[in-house]
Amino acid sequence: MTDTTSSRSSYYERHIFFCLNERNNGEECCAQHRAQEAFDHCKGRVRAAGLAGPGKVRVNKAGCLDRCAGGPIAVVYPEAVWYTYVDLQDVDDIVESHLKNGIVVERLLTPASVGR
Hints:
- This protein has a 4-stranded mixed beta sheet with strand order 2-1-3-4, covered by helices on one side.
- It has helices at 4-7, 35-48, 88-101, and strands at residues 14-19, 57-62, 73-77, 81-84.
- It is globular.
- Helix 2 crosses helix 3 (88-101).
- 28% of the residues lie in helices and 18% in strands.
- The chain is an alpha+beta fold.
């Protein structure tokens, strides 16, 4: 019998998901905090750094991640690290530190208690 766990590999080393959810009922949402701009910026930075593609990083759009109170929100897998970012410099820090070097950006972590 072979150990399939050790022979299995992920198609991407990391995924970063940006919540782009927009609420029309007046409730707080990531779209109100320029989440689309942050997603586009991240995608461009990942490409420019040569981090995009199989075996590397994938930048994905997401619907509601249900952590609206901390928005805007992004999450990096497989580590399941949740970030709250404020501006494009924060996104740059996530790309450079976490996506490129595997080092979590502690100052941008979303507190575990933050939900919707």
